[in-house]
Amino acid sequence: MIIGACRVKLLIYESNSLKDKRHTIKSIIGRIQSRFNVSIAEIDLNDSWRSSIIGFVCVTNDTNLANQILSNVIKFIDEDGRVEILEYQIEIL
Q1: Is residue 17 very low, low, confident or very high in pLDDT (cuts 50, 70, 90)?
Q2: What is the C-alpha separation between 63 and 56, in angstroms, rounded?
Q3: What are phi and psi of 17, to 5 degrees?
Q4: What is the predicted pLDDT for the residue at 39?
Q5: Is 28 strand, coil or helix?
Q6: How crowded is the C-beta side of 24, counted as CA atoms within 13 Å?
Q7: From the CB of residue 85, how many other CB atoms can be counted at a distance below 10 Å?
Q8: CA dihedral in degrees (24, 30, 31, 36; nearest 10)?
C-alpha cells in the first residue's frame, strides 16, 4: 500500500473576512473531491482570513500513480485564479 500525502499553503485573493475565505476554500475542496479520488481538508490557519493550509492524501498500489495524482491536484489548485500556492510538500509513504 502506497500513501501519497500533500500539504499546500495558499494565499487567498479577494478575501476580506473569514466568511469569504471559508467560501473559497470550501468551493476548492468540493471541486477537488468531485474530480479526484483524494481525501482533503483544511488543516491549519483556520482563523487567518488571507491564508490557508489544506492537506490531501491518496492511497494506491503504485508510487508513480500516487505522485501523478498529487501533482494533478496541485496543478488544478494552481490554475484556480482565486488562490496562489505559496508552498507545498509532497510525501510518499
Answers
A1: confident
A2: 16
A3: -160, 170
A4: 93
A5: helix
A6: 25
A7: 14
A8: 140
Smallest CA-to-CA distance from 55 within 45, 47, 64 is with 45
Contacts of residue 86, defined as CB under 8 A and 6 or more positions apart, other chains included, come to 9, 10, 11, 51
Question: d(Cα 67, Cα 80) in Å, to the nearest integer?
Answer: 20
3-state secondary structure of 89: strand
Q: Is 50 helix (H, G, I), strand (E, B) or coil?
A: coil
Residue 25, phi then psi, degrees to nearest 5: -65, -45
pLDDT tens-digit profile of 20-56? 889 999 999 999 999 998 999 998 887 888 899 999 9
| Coil vs helix vs strand at 7 | strand
